[in-house]
Amino acid sequence: MDSERHSRQNDLRDRAEAILAVMPQEPADCSQGEMRRLIYDLSVHQIELELQNEELRNAQLQMEDTRDCYARLYHQAPEGYLSLDASGVIRQFNQTFASMVGSGSVDLTGRSLAELMTGADRDIFLGRFKAFFRNPEGKSMDVVLRCGKSASHLMARLTGRRETDAVSFTGRLIQPLLLVIVSDISVQKAMEDALRQERDASQRYLGVVGSIVIVIRQDQTVSLINQAGCQLLGCPQEDIIGANWFDRFLPERLRVNAKAYFTRLIAEEMDLIKSLESVVLTRSGEERIVAWRNTVLRDVTGRMTGTLSSGEDVTERRKAEAALREREAVLHNITEAAQDAIVMMDPTGRISFWNPAAEHIFGYLREEALGQNLHQLLAPERYHETQDKAFPAFLNTGRGNAIGKTLGLHARRKDGVEIAVAISLSAIQMQGQWYAVGILRDETERQSQEAELRRLATTDHLTGLANRRHFLAQVERELERFKRYADPAALLMLDLDHFKQVNDAYGHAIGDAVLKHFADLAGQALRKIDLLGRLGGEEFAALLPGTTMAGAYPLAERLRCIVMESPAATDAGPVGFSVSVGVALFAPDDHDAGAILIRADRALYRAKHRGRNRVEMQKANEERTSRRRA
Asked: Of 206-220, 221-235, 569-583, 584-598, where does mean pLDDT reach its minimum?
């Protein structure tokens, strides 16, 4: 290594001598010893620049890792995120939001959010937006968004949070923006449509590192500058040599203090500042930020004759750092405001990131969760074996059966209660190691709502019985089973006799009580495998799987007797009523449920025609078509 360093120093020395050979020289006012000292110092500073460049590259890689981590969290979030200015114009958005509104790869930046809304919602949004922008805390807006060019729409809830006011690297106040979280609240929308393929829209910052070498004499003029310095300043070498450094290449606001410091430094009244950053002024008037490493030059008597400085243009790096800080601030606000838990697991399986939503969902404070084994803390024991087998492969490749997917699983809260969660997993590589990022949504309320919706979709609201649609679907299913396995089945059509007179005499509230009473009686009389449904009004039907006419007719007769003997207890007193029943068996040539209902309805019509309060049978070989009674 020493030989390589020596070789590199010799190479640098040769290059420096070559540059000096073609460089215009003023009358020699330096001694030979001073010149040797100058060349030696130039070589040392060039090596320092190489080491400094290596440090800068490492810092840039670290910034890129951090940027990529936050960018993935941002774009993989199950919620839509966008930033709006005071006019409601979109300034930034994540891929989830673009997927929600069906924009695909179309850039939404610069468009008004109101353009994505329907007419009525657009007017409401525009009317409320100014107040919402000024004070969004605790407020939300529900709107309907159009999904691209299709006719479909998305019901979305907008919740806002003001982004932290920031100052750019030039000191200028950044325009305030509103961070908006867009949640899909369309119950009918399937969960697999909630997440789209993420797209990495993060920008890469390429810092152009330029370095200069400059000698400033005690009279403040430049006596030496290399080509890199000329390129930075935008001037040919002959225009720089001999020029006053402070008057020519420093902004006016900095000149007085810089000159005063340099004068006192030359007089050895102040210590040298070995490292600092300052602004230089280029020929075009542009200000560039330079990181300097400084040393002093002395003659053979030890008298200070000037300064030798090596500088590196860090303007782009500082801009990138400022932009990264702003992006980090935005992404930090997003993760802090997100309603879903965002959790990161390091290569040891321990929790390294835990947002406030995770605290709320699982009950562990951030301080309690960080550093804990994620699987031991949150995963029920039945998952441990599978996770232990998959984890080593993930550490080697960053891949796994669950990576890039949304899974429905269960997690354990701090109080030991298991909850249903939807978890989206992704892998992030940082410094050569794989980390797992999970976005977890508490599905408890959604699953409860879906169960309630399924109940409402299949149940009659008054009696709690199967509604007409659900009942007929079950008849179709039983018909398929009958045709496949030849298991017998029967269908009862039931109609309350003279029910209109009950409504006319007592009112609809009492009529409803009679209907519910009948539903209770019939439910008690039927078997658990039987299905009772309300087809409409006072008309009911019962599906009897595995039942022949020998079983169906006695059951119908028994039910008729129970109804006859059990008046409904109502606010108007006991109300007696009766029921007529038509019975039909499933037949091999039945094409659909309608054929069976026609026969059962025909039998019911006969029961009504023969005096009501009776049971009539309709056989499969009788006429298949009939006209439903009005």
From this structure: 206-220
Whole-number Cα distances in Å, 207 to 287, 291, 325: 16, 14, 16
- Per the DSSP assignment, residues forming a β-bridge with 279 are 289
For residue 121 the two structure tokens come to 């919602």
Is residue 127 a contact partner of residue 155, using CB atoms and an 8 Å limit? no
Contact between 148 and 103 under an 8 Å Cβ cutoff? The reply is yes
Cα torsion 119, 121, 124, 126 to 10°: value is -70
- In a 3-state reduction of DSSP, which class is residue 233? helix
Do 157 and 186 touch, CB atoms closer than 8 A?
no
- Pick 111 or 503 by higher pLDDT: 503
To which residue do tokens 């560039």 refer? 288
Whether residue 167 has pLDDT greater than 80: no
* Residue ranges with strand state E in 487-567: 489-496, 531-536, 539-545
pLDDT at 173: 58
| φ, ψ (nearest 5 deg) of residue 571 | -65, -20
**Of residues 290, 274, 277, 287, the one with CA closest to residue 210:** 290
Q: Which among 393, 389, 395 is positioned nearest to 350, based on CA atoms?
A: 395
Q: What 8-state DSSP symbol labels residue 382?
A: G
Cβ distance 311 to 249 under 8 Å?
no
Judge whether 438 and 358 are in contact, CB under 8 Å: no
Question: Given this model, what pLDDT does residue 516 score?
Answer: 94
Identify any residues that bridge with 412 across adjacent strands, giving them in sequence order: 418
For tokens 């932290």, name the residue: 164
Q: Which residues contact 89 (CB under 8 A, 6 or more apart)?
A: 110, 111, 112, 113
How confident is the model at residue 7, as a pLDDT? 64
Asked if 275 and 291 count as a contact pair (C-beta separation under 8 A), the reply is yes
Q: What average pLDDT does this structure show over 18-25?
A: 60
- How do residues 290-321 score in pLDDT, each as one tens digit? 888 888 898 888 888 888 888 888 888 888 88
- Strands laid side by side in the 531-536 sheet: 531-536, 539-545, 489-496, 579-585, 615-618
Other beta carbons within 10 angstroms of residue 36's beta carbon come to: 11
What is the pLDDT at residue 209?
A: 33
Q: How many CA atoms lie within 13 A of 71 on its CB side?
A: 15
The span from the CA of 293 to the CA of 468, in Å, is 86
Q: Is the pLDDT of residue 6 over 50?
A: yes
Strand order in the sheet with 222-225: 222-225, 210-217, 304-313, 287-298, 275-281
Query: How far is Cα 514 from Cα 39, in angstroms, rounded to an integer?
Result: 109
- The residues, any chain, with a CB within 8 Å of residue 126's CB and separated by 6 or more, are 88, 114
Please return the burial class of 150, using the count of CB atoms within 10 Å of its CB with bins 0-12, 13-18 and 19+: exposed
SS3 label, residue 515: helix
Mean pLDDT over all residues of the chain?
81
Q: For the whole model, what pTM was predicted?
A: 0.38
Residue of 156, 6, 162 lying closest to 84 (CA atoms): 162
Q: 461 in helix, strand or coil? A: coil
- Of the chain, the percentage scoring pLDDT greater than 90 comes to 25
